[in-house]
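Predict the 3D structure for this chain.
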Amino acid sequence: MLRSLASAYLKGELEDVRFESMDNPHVVRALEGIKGVGRWSAEYVLLYSLGRLDVYPGDDVGAAKSLATWLGISGRLSYEDVQTVTSRWGQYRGMVYFHLLLRRLREKSLV
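Done. Predicted structure below.
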């Protein structure tokens, strides 16, 4: 994914793209047009690179599992389930994602 994004950037394929002025679905579609970049990668870029804290990467299996555990939900959450559950946090979805990531790392004594 990183190589594909870097290659697209170096080839000038992202030069005219103004992600800052685009809404999340348009950014996802633009990034998915790059070989090797799927929805998870695009949402990851939204959250980590563009600082869009209203994004919770629903295809992140570990994050979905952490969310289910935290909320006491049994079974695996689908992408749609994750989006529905996290919708209540609106513009702070990404903060919940980071909280659960740090919580998991702390449980594994990695931080």
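The radius of gyration is 15 Å.
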